[in-house]
Amino acid sequence: MHKNLIELNHPLLLHKLGYLRDKTTYSNEFRNLVTEVSKLLAYEAMRDWKDMDAVRVETPIAPTKVDRIINPPVAVAILRAGNGMLDGVLSMIPIASAGFIGIYRDKFIQNTVEYYFKLPADVKGREILLCDPLIATADTMIAAIDRLKSYHVGPIKVLSILTSEHALKRLEHFHPDVKVFALNVEKEMTENGYLVPGLGDAGDRLYQTK
Questions:
Q1: Any idea where the Phosphoribosyltransferase domain is (predicted)?
Q2: DSSP secondary structure string, 36-55?
Q3: Closest of 40, 38, 120, 35 to residue 72, by C-alpha
Q4: Do strands 134-135 and 97-106 pair parallel, antiparallel, or not at all (unpaired)?
Q5: Which domain holds residue 13?
Q6: pLDDT (tens digit, 9 = 90+) per residue, 112-138?
């Protein structure tokens, strides 16, 4: 049991995950499914949101007070596959702002390389929803969290479709305060870092680049 994992094993999500795993699922269907799953991941990640304000409105029948989210989170995509999740998260939380981190693991230097980093100016203290559909070794995820924390952001929640046992152990070691929301935990990885059974390379399947 991983104390920082929130596993969403809802039948509807597992149904969609089955189509994401299927190699015959076309790219446009794959993108739509990732968007749908991302909406529900965002929904769960916001379940414990406390920063609300009461606003007075007029219904068609009578005046009343309603709750409104204030100081909304920042949805941050790890390029490029994380972009596939961003539309779903922002459609569920339209008042959220967005950021982007371009980072990858270079097998020759055995380290992560950052090539792009852009966050909203007011990110300090804001909750982060960090999006990457697959977490295998967790190298890029750990590096991304390190960078975000250097900007003194608020709590960080990771939204992912699949993660590995290995990744969860490393995240709990390096960033025990970060919660991970995912549909399933994969027990195995290939020597090239692909999750087994996984769903292949999410970026390639989203954008038909292979």
A1: 9-209
A2: HHHHHHHHHHTTT---EEEE
A3: 120
A4: unpaired
A5: 5-207
A6: 888 899 999 999 999 999 999 999 999
Checking DSSP bridges between strand 111-118 and strand 74-79, what pairing results, if any? unpaired
Output the domain CATH number for residue 144. 3.40.50.2020
Q: Tokens 């446009």 correspond to what residue?
A: 28
Condensed to tens digits (0 to 9), the pLDDT of residues 32-50 reads: 999 999 999 999 999 999 9
If one counts the domains in the chain, the total is 1
Cβ atoms of residues 82 and 133 within 8 Å: yes
By the 8 A CB rule, do 63 and 54 touch? no
**pLDDT (tens digit per residue) in 69-118:** 999 999 999 998 999 999 999 999 999 999 999 987 766 666 788 889 99
Tokens of 67: 């709750």
